């Protein structure tokens, strides 16, 4: 049995994306090419979950480092939320072959260094690693983003009061051991299943659910920002001391 340490990402098209304010074209590999090329360059295993890449595109670009997995899209959720159900379903089927895992955005993230052989990562097997942003959780965008959950989750307002001064966590990069990641994905999918199916707001709820879960359930074993990611939206294209570059 082959044991591997993958990086998961997704590319769902033909659905209106509220974050991008458009519908992505179905078979445009250029949108994922930089991510895939960085996976290949580092020598990692990347898995792209998709709903509309053609067989021709898959045959052209699939190789030892890049695997395509086609799924049926569930329109109850936004692409940013649906991906977690896909990842968790995959882990339930293949977790015995996976020792560690990272999940990343695909259009604005590239791998800079292999996280899995980094001594800081190896020595913190019980921790969850993720990106963050140079702003507090309590900010205008997050207050609007979380309105749906505020009315659905009993202790959500208390969470905002308790952690509003803490750094805003970013769900564009998250990873750890398979044990931690299975726990994280199971809890996150349960949260979205019970509280986010009927979200009719202009916000997906992915950042709200992510911050709520990590701060309330993983805060004592959380590592965010450096060395996992560069500074979000700082466009530090020449920085090479982190594992992932996020914009």
CATH H-level homologous superfamily name: Spore Coat Polysaccharide Biosynthesis Protein SpsA, Chain A
Determine the CATH topology. Spore Coat Polysaccharide Biosynthesis Protein SpsA, Chain A
Largest sheet, strands/sense/barrel: 7 strands, mixed
- Tell me, rounded to a whole number, the average pLDDT: 95
- Structure summary, number of beta strands: 11
Q: Which CATH top level class fits?
A: Alpha Beta
List segments where confidence is low: pLDDT < 50 over at least 5 consecutive residues.
none
> Distance between the terminal alpha carbons, to the nearest Å?
36 Å
Q: Percentage of helical residues?
A: 25-40%
Widest beta sheet: strand line-up:
5-4-1-6-9-8-10
The total number of structural domains is: 1
Work out the strand percent: 15-25%
CATH-defined architecture: Alpha-Beta Complex
Shape: globular
Order of helices and strands: EEEHEHEHEEHEHHHEHHEE
Radius of gyration: 17 Å
**Total number of helices:** 9
The structural class is: alpha/beta
Describe the fold and architecture.
This protein has one domain (6-246): Alpha-Beta Complex (Spore Coat Polysaccharide Biosynthesis Protein SpsA, Chain A). It contains nine helices and eleven strands. Helix content is 36%, strand content 22%. The strands form three sheets. Strands 5-4-1-6-9-8-10 form a seven-stranded mixed beta sheet, sandwiched between helices. It has a two-stranded antiparallel sheet with strand order 2-3. By secondary structure, it is of the alpha/beta class. The model has no long low-confidence stretch (mean pLDDT 95).
């Amino acid at each position: 049995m082959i044991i591997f340490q993958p990086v998961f990402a997704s590319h769902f098209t033909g659905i209106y994306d509220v974050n991008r304010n458009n519908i992505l074209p179905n078979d445009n590999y250029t949108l994922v090419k930089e991510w895939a090329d960085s996976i290949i360059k580092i020598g990692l295993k990347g898995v792209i979950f998709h709903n509309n890449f053609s067989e021709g595109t898959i045959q052209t670009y699939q190789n030892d480092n890049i695997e395509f997995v086609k799924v049926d899209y569930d329109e109850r959720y936004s692409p940013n939320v649906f991906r977690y159900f896909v990842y968790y379903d995959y882990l339930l089927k293949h977790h015995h072959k996976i020792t560690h895992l990272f999940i990343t955005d695909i259009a604005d993230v590239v791998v800079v260094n292999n996280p899995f052989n980094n001594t800081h990562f190896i020595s913190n097997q019980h921790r969850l690693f993720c990106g963050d942003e140079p702003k507090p959780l309590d900010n205008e965008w997050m207050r609007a983003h979380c309105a749906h959950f505020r009315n659905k989750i009993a202790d959500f307002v208390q969470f905002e009061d308790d952690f509003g001064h803490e750094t805003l966590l970013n769900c564009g990069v998250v990873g750890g051991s398979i044990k931690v990641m299975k726990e994280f994905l199971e809890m996150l999918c349960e949260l979205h299943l019970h509280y986010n199916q009927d979200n009719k707001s202009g916000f997906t709820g992915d950042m709200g659910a992510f911050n709520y879960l990590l701060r309330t359930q993983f805060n004592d074993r959380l590592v965010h920002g450096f060395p996992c990611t560069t500074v979000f939206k700082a466009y530090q294209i020449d920085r090479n001391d982190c594992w992932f570059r996020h914009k």
